[in-house]
Amino acid sequence: MEEGARSCLLLSRSSLEQDIRASYLMDHMISDGVLTGDEEDRIRSKLTRREQATALLELLLRKDNQAYISFYNALVRESYGDLASLLHNSLPLVSPEAEKSFSDGGTRYVQAVLSEGGVPQRPVVFVSRSALVNRVREKLYRLQKEPGWVTVFGMAGSGKSVLAAEAVRDHALITGRCFPGGVHWLSIGQLDRADLLVRIQSLCFRLEQQSQEKDPSSSLHRPPGSLEEAKERLRFLMLRRYPRSLLVLDDIWDSSVLKAFDIQCRVLLTTRDRSLADCVSGSKSEVAVESGLEEDQALEILALYVNGKPQRLPEQARSIVRECKGSPLVVSLIGALLREFPDRWAYYLHTLQQKKFKRIRKSSSYDYDALDQAMAASIQVLSEEHRELYIDLTVLEQDVKVPAKVLSVLWDLELEEVEDVLQDFVNKSLLFRDCHHRPYLYYLHDLQLDFLTEMNRSGLESLHTKVVRQYQQRYSQGPPTSGDEECLYWFRFLTYHMAKANLTQELYSLMFSLDWVRTKAQIMGPAHLINDYVEYGAILDKEFSKLFMVVVCSRNKSSLKSLSRLVVQPHQGSIYSACFSHDGTKIASCGSSKTLRVFKSTSGEKLLEIQAHDDDVLCCAFSPDDHLLATCSSDRKVKVWNGSRLSVSNLFCVLWNINKPSSQNTMFGHLEPVNHCCFSPDDAYLSTSSSDGTLKLWEVSSANEWKSIDVADVFPEQREQTEVIVKCSTWSADGRTIICAARNAVFLWDIETSKKMADCSGHLSWVHGVQFSPDGSLLLSWSDDQTVRAWETNKVHTSSAVCLKRDSDVLFNNGDITVVAADNRNRLQVRGTGECVVLEGHKEQVRCFSLLTTSPSSETHLLSWSFDGTIKVWDMSSGERLQDLVCHQGAVLACDVSPDGQLFATTSADKTAKVWSRASWQCVRLLNGHQDCVRSCRFSWDGRRLATGDDNGEIRLWNVKDGTLLKICSRDNKDAMDSLHGGWVTDLHFSPDNTVLLSTGGYIKWWNVEKGEALQTFYPTGANLKRIHVSPDFSTFVTIDNIGILYILKKVE
Question: Where do the WD repeats start and stop (predicted)?
Fold first, then answer.
């Protein structure tokens, strides 16, 4: 097993041992061939659940990568999603041969079904996009009840076909009640009627052949001779012989093609045009494939192609991934080329940067060998008129969104007509729309814009000239003054279009037009105006421009000082951080453009721009003496720049002429993005906060790491398992203390000893910033919980590592309130009017507990049960343990007290239930018969019956008096999942008259107690109902499913 996977298992071991049931996971691992029957028997021989979990993990650590992956998949299938997330980032890479031999998204039966249906195999190099796959599967599950259409749409090369194939590679979809008739895949593409007929003939023949194999009495028919006949033949086959099957239509281009499959069946289609399904009948849903690969996924693909590991790829790898803009097609093409020429990283990076898409060419299973072919195919389906309009979009700037009014000016069309054209582009995934603005804004994907620029390189000047001429024609009487999005676009980018069109004279006239200068200054402020003169100074007459700038700035100098705000746009893209220099004369900013920019705080005029990092720059900070400037980035690097030459002249207009500065020091050591940086008061050290869970202190002069504080270790072991991200840090005025924020907590550290001095817990969500008051007496923190908190520094303290769990019970007695809750140390805490009483004795996690009132003295005792197989009885006032009963060989999963308080029942993972006497504390009834863990129990209100439910969905009714079995609820009517509830029976309730029993699991059922027959079943949208609350009159029922949907059910009389 790879070292990273082994380390992840060891780090997560305590959480896994605490929660998993090994018996559930081993079935899947045996199916995958990574666990033997003898190994399973050895693990099952352990007495307690925790011992079994420990034995499974010890065995797993001695196995290989396939065992790790099988264990991870088993966690996912058994709804241990939170535990699976702990292992996800360390999933090891396996060779293509091992990938083929390993379970490919299901059992051998599922693989056979998909193979018969022509579903493509996974690519040799494959990385899962689980979020998108789950969205498609969610839509497919909705086709269970009625025919319909699921459309997966996105731009060229976004991975739609691979996504569709992965979505149907699901055991529950194929073997459950969704598509037991199989999945039938048909690749379409751009076809004429004759080719389409051939495709449908081929599909019909395949379906008839499979049907004949199952039923030899059926015969093959002659191939249909026309599209109409082919459509009817396919309708007959899908509705009569394969009524519960899924038809997958891959790469649909034309609505006329789609109509041939409008036969009232279940269809999944992939397309670039989201509007295609509008022409067919039936229910419709869609999934947009807008987002590309994440950086880690793209790096994993490249690593698989070159048989390496992501962390060992050359430095050009991350730059290549960024230039690929997340496109699965481009990443795969580059990876395939690198597999043959592994020393060409720099060459292919340069090719991408130069937009030479025709050189990025490699034969593959994809219909197009190069990106330019895929993009061109999308444009060719447009009408000639729309194609010319689309080419006009070449003039747009990257990451700039434009309103329809701007394109109305460019195309000289009515606004409504422009919106119709844009809707067509959006439907065909050739354009994207930002629906968060009104009116809508439109923009191109970076790859689409790059392709258009490359395709029209020779005509760029004329295209920009067209923009300028159309503007001049529309606004011949003067510039727009409305202040809306269209107006702002022209004031921001008209000069850009003129410069690109080489219209020097028009640019000169515009920038010295008093109407333009006055209007732009009023609408956008002076910063944008001054930046135009700086940006295009080389084009203008330099002497005249200098004079003009001095005049404009001098006239506005007094007004600038009184401005309440300064609007500056220093970067293209999001800005993540900005800070003042300590003398207040400069502002530094950074963001997604990967640049650091310094400008004057008075006018916004640019002083310096540096390409600082290879990825988003997340934070920047001046040193206290303003001589140094630090930046940190998602590329995991920290850099310190020499800012001594960033001087500002006493003149209002800056005289600027310095060489491009370089980084003085680069600091390496963080393993994840660095979120924040901050200088110490004496400039000697720099603190950095990272998503790797550490706070690091660096010597500025040498760039050496001075100290590293692992903030992640501060959180209790039993915390909810998610990554610990250190958001920010700041120093005290004396430089001896540093504070940092991680999750919803703030921590104070003594720098000399690197020990935690105190923590401030109180925020309910992520803390995003912290700051000391000038005298250090107060500490300020602000959070996602919409609060700002001020803490007295000398009064905050270090809390214990003990934390209460959410399970609790409350006793109200004559105005007094007693609260009982389990903590993370296997203890119970009783809190009332007096001191807290701690009940300690369980060796494993406390499963649950119940308050007991002893009559006639009304003394209150506490009954608790645990995974350690014991029941304990406590005196709540003194904390004394009154009884310690070893009840079962396995974990005690449930307990219930009879209405008269004289008996209590326990159920266990050892497949038994027991009834105990409170008078003698002895077992009076042993109830055998369940074939799986007995997870729930409930006494009837008259105390005569006991209901028990197990993990196989079976419910048994027992006679409490003699322990005889009365009924097994609908034993012979199990569903396709071999369970009455699609899972465990988790809760049981009797009606007040004891005639109806309510049970929950994957579903909710009401039973006739006398007959043991189901009266009604309610199917929630989700599953895994853990508990249901019932009103005293048995008329209202409240529960929540595993996807967070709240159900309030009312009995209808």
Answer: 610-642, 667-708, 760-801, 839-884, 885-917, 927-968
